[in-house]
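testing teh design pipeline on a random one, pls ignore if ur not involved
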């Protein structure tokens, strides 16, 4: 199983178009050691031809241009994207569906009922796409039965309901529903290796910790270093927790969570990184702290073989 990071940034990307925080300004003018990052998405494949797109980011076209493997060019109109799986209905994870409207067939989309509901109401992308390629609804039932996706033969997919947040335009923003956000545990049956992916992780419930303990690769919520990061910079009134994200530093933060996993050799990688997060600076003190804990920071194009 091959996992390619198409986009490692949180909503807004890095640099964010209208942001002049130290990181965004610094990466724009080259005064800090950091690389730009596009918005949150992975591509997963077994044969390198058929890919499951996990989240359709607003940057999907740039991501496809940067990853020619996803364009196998077998016929006049072609794509390596065999299906899309959505982990929530947030703008950074679903807007790219609009960019896939020229698809030759109905686009198979895997999502929970809660996400399908948001995509038919608060963000009615399903109705919009019905005027173009159309979509094929595949429901992620959250009934513990592993998901079989034809594009990924030999990969067992377990979807875990997560405690995080539905988007601001969701009818259930303030009345959370099971399935508003999910995490994924992907097992490659041949190697027996597992990857856990959760770009939005607000709280660590026991079933989530269990899944994380079973993973050889962890790609987890790296949105913010401190809970009040955006507030301190004067950029927002929301904490990381308000947005459904667990900050990295401090007691009970993501570093502590990852430290407590007792699986020697597991790779721990932070992903979905907000542009304000100091871990984006390659030679900064926060990055040294992460290195001391054996934690890596995802970048676009990073690839894992499991
Ligand atoms: C989030 O995960 O909270 C989003 O990236 C926020 C956003 O897109 O505005
Ligand atoms: Mn996001
Ligand atoms: Zn910024």
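output:
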């Amino acid at each position: 199983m091959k996992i390619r990071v198409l986009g490692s940034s949180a909503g807004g990307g890095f640099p964010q178009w209208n942001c002049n925080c130290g990181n965004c300004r610094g990466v724009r003018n080259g005064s800090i050691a950091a690389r730009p990052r596009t918005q949150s998405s992975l591509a997963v494949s077994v044969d390198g031809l058929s890919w499951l797109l996990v989240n359709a980011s607003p940057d999907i076209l740039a991501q496809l241009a940067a990853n020619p493997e996803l364009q196998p060019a077998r016929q006049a109109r072609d794509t390596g994207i065999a299906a899309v799986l959505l982990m929530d209905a947030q703008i950074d994870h679903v807007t790219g569906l609009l960019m896939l409207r020229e698809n030759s067939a109905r686009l198979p989309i895997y999502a929970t009922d809660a996400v399908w509901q948001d995509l038919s109401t608060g963000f009615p992308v399903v109705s919009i796409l019905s005027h173009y390629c159309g979509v094929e609804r595949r429901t992620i039932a959250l009934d513990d039965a592993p998901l079989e996706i034809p594009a990924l033969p030999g990969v067992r997919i377990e979807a875990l309901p997560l405690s995080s947040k539905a988007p601001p335009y969701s009818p259930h923003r303030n009345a959370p529903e099971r399935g508003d956000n999910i995490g994924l545990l992907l097992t490659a049956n041949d190697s027996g290796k597992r990857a856990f992916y959760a770009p939005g992780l607000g709280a660590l419930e026991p079933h989530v910790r269990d899944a994380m303990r079973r993973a050889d690769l962890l790609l987890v919520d790296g949105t913010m270093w401190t809970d009040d990061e955006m507030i301190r910079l004067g950029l927002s009134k929301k904490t990381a927790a308000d947005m459904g994200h667990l900050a990295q530093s401090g007691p009970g933060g993501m570093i502590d969570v990852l430290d407590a996993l007792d699986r020697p050799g597991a790779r721990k990688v932070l992903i979905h990184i907000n542009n304000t997060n100091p871990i984006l600076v390659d030679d900064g003190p926060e990055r040294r702290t992460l290195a001391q804990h054996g934690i890596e920071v995802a970048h676009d194009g990073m690839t894992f073989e499991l």
